[in-house]
Structures are given as structure tokens and as C-alpha cells.
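lol ok so funny story. i was supposed to be doing the assay writeup but got distracted and ended up predicting the structure for this chain instead. priorities right. anyway since i did it might as well share w the group, maybe its usefull for someone
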Amino acid sequence: MRSCSTCRSQEEEHRFLEPDEADWLKKELDTNNVDTFMVCLAWVGGGAKQCRNLRTYWQEKPFRKPLRLPEPE
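and the output, tada:
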């Protein structure tokens, strides 16, 4: 389990990115390697949506401003 700097969750799990999510992040960051990135699975807003904040395995805040994955379609 990893903590989330955005929703402050200490209990929700993070998971590594799915292939389509990794493709989006590669384009967003203009890089080829996003293997260490994880997405927060915490439900926020009374369970209305997921946090989806990105972090790396080792670093809670890899970006100056939080970067979230777009909501799945």
C-alpha cells in the first residue's frame, strides 16, 4: 500500500498502470518509460469518483502539481 498526497488516503491501494493508461502518460510526459508510475484507487467526493492521482513507486509527489489520469470512458 502507498499513501496519496492528493486525497491523503493512507489505506487505499495504488496499482501500476494499464497499457492504455501508460500510453496516455507517455504522451503527456513525452517519455518512453512510465513503468514505475502508479494510480491511486481511492474513492473521493462521497464515492462519486476515483482520485486517480499519479505517483511513482518510490516518490509520493513526482510532479510539482498533481497529475491525474483522465476518467475511463
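The chain has one domain: 1-73. The longest helix spans residues 19-29.
back to the writeup now i swear
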